[in-house]
Amino acid sequence: MVNALTCLLKKKVTEETPVRDEEVEAIGRAIKTEIDAVFGRSLAIRELDTGSDNAAEIEINNLSNPLYDVERFGITFVASPRHADVLLVTGAVTHNMAIAAKKTYDAMPSPKFVVAVGDDACTGGIFAGTYAVLGGAEKIFPVDMKIPGNPPTPLQILAGLLALMKKARMQ
Amino acid sequence: MTPEQDIGTRAAQEFLGAAALADRLSTGPNNEQYVLVEETEFENAVAHLAANKFVLIGLFCCEGFARNAAQTLFYVFERRTSILVLVRNTGGKATSIACIYPSASWFERECRDGFGVAFEGAFDTRRLFLHETYPEGFHPLKKSFKNASVVTRATVDPAEEYPFRPVSGEGVYQVPVGPVHAGIIEPGHFRFSVIGETIFNLECRMFYKHRGIEKLAEGKQPGDCLKIAEAVSGDESVANATAFCMAVEKISQTPVPERAWYLRTILLELERVCSHLGDQAGMLVDVAFPLGANQFSVLREECFREHDRLTGSRFLRGMVSPGGLSRDIAKPDLDELVAFVHRVRKGYKVGLKIVLSTASVIDRFATTGVIRPALLRPLNISGPSARASGGKVDVRLNHPYGIYGQFAPKPQRLRDGDVLSRFTVKASEIMDSLDLIERLIAEIPEGDISTTPVIKDGYTLVLVESARGQNLCWVWIKGGVIERYKVRTASFCNWLAIEHAVQGNIVPDFPVINKSLNLSYAGTDL
């Protein structure tokens, strides 16, 4: 039987983070400063896949792994567009997703920002001008920031978000 | 011809007769066998193959094949190491075989949308990848349609919305989910019919991400299609690029240098490790065990960084090319990879021990989302999902390509078919892939990494084992450019398994069942 007291009194152990990535830290601190100034400490992001190859989603998901852990910089990924400040769009907009994508955008409260992540979302990429897609995200709603890449790395996505925050502060 | 390949020929002899077979059987560059079947013989042939345990692994269509200006259907059957393709000429109409081979249902609907082939007697004639906004009579894969923007409707009347299979009864209610989900995942619609908390029925509606991959490749030089093959599914880039390149190499009879195959195999196995780590982390997130999940997501991020160091791409893109590889990986880099593999293995064992000794995790995983072995053949379920349900399927073992003949993976096989079995099979596969990578680096020969292929016309069928299972690819080159590029990823078939796996489970277990099957939406929707 474990004595409850020993649990309370024994030395607490917290593991060191496996890798401390100075680049991530620097960008994260800058983002936090901007978010504090513009959004009152937290930036709520809704991710929307309108036809990507899933690589961009994987990278966006990676932002939450312990090596980036972006929540500590004030970035949260929310489950509903109704709670979101920013719509992070990946992939060219397919005809099959167009209606759902528009509904998602319309459900967001204003003021709202749209960020296109990856070549396909920025311009339609290799799919531009073909039968199955409308093109890049700007075909169906205004886009405030574009982060190119196939797919962009987590660091590039963070840099893009920082640029958006700076742009928002100017407005 | 090996005795195993003979299974296909023997079956064809039985349903056609030896005399008729002689001028109708041909062997493709990848040793797949094509048999031209007349309309009158077709039904009998399919019945014969079904009785002899052949699995329908693919069904696709093309136009203008071998003197038939209209549509030709290719029914790809597999039995052990033999691949038999029935070639059926149609004039736009054909009888359905979905009642014999349920996996044919989606295939037939795909051919109907793409080419306008009408399947008589089909139990499901709804559109598949062309959703309601596309105009009637639009068939994008027909040669008469030149790939260009089309005008679709901006809204859909409720009366014209996709009709889901009606499910009714006392206490049955519907839970519609998607296409936009709560998490950061791809779009798809799930229509649950639920009694209390228990799922009575699930119908998946996919193809929201249909972006016209197959049509996009047509008319392009093979070398220009790599980006398209890599865009089939993000974390299957190496597998799909390898399948495409293998097809081009087989058609043009280009020998691939040995060193290139060693490096390709290393990349294929790295991709598998990375994908499985992501699944396992996801499964643990879905049962609310972040301590375990983070063990694997840290390792996975380190894998991505290692990929970047080795190839300049976190998704290992731009490496595989027709004829071999686009660039070499130098010895010091490979030595560092060995050290990395050691580190991953050590870290992985620690994580696995934490997970498997946590009772709450085992409680959620065990007996959840069972895929019965009886479903494997009718639905052509492959990959870790099949191997966790007693299936002996692994393209690397059944149809060894590249150097998998010398470097065979350990056959994995569990029988329970639940989430825990899939988790455990993936754990064994990670360890096995790490071992394989080490062996490959230890024995890698020096030499060239690429032969420039001289593109020839022809067609062939290639199978590879991606992290998710059996990926099929059929390439037809005509006039030096791609005439038809057919991709069928493992997920296309495995999606149908989830409708069965969730029955009798509670709705809150759906995410973990879904993650354990690791289905690619992009790879299905194309």
Can you characterise this structure?
The complex is a heterodimer of chains A (171) and B (526). With 171 residues, chain A is an alpha/beta fold. Chain A has a single domain (21-170), classed as Rossmann fold (3-Layer(aba) Sandwich). Chain A is built from 6 helices and 7 strands; from the N terminus they run H-H-E-H-E-E-E-H-E-H-E-E-H. Chain A has a 5-stranded parallel sheet, with helices on both faces. Chain A has a two-stranded antiparallel sheet with strand order 4-6. In chain A, helix 3 links the parallel strand 1 and strand 2 (75-77). The longest helix of chain A has 17 residues, at 22-38. Chain A is elongated, with a radius of gyration of 19 Å. The model of chain A has no long low-confidence stretch (mean pLDDT 89). Chain B is an alpha+beta fold. Chain B folds into 2 domains: 6-120, NADH:ubiquinone oxidoreductase Nqo5 subunit (Beta Polymerase, domain 2), CATH 3.30.460; 213-525, Cytochrome-c3 Hydrogenase, chain B. Chain B is 40% helix and 18% strand. In chain B, the strands form 5 sheets. In chain B, strands 1-2-5-4-3 form a 5-stranded mixed sheet. A 3-stranded antiparallel sheet of chain B has the order 8-9-10. In chain B, helix 1 crosses helix 3 (39-51), helix 8 runs antiparallel to helix 17 and helix 10 (331-356) runs antiparallel to helix 15 (419-443). Chain B is globular, with a radius of gyration of 23 Å. Chain B starts with 5 loop residues before the first helix and ends with a helix. The chains are: A alpha/beta (171), B alpha+beta (526). Chains A and B meet through strand 1, helix 3 and helix 4 of A and helix 6, helix 9 and helix 18 of B.
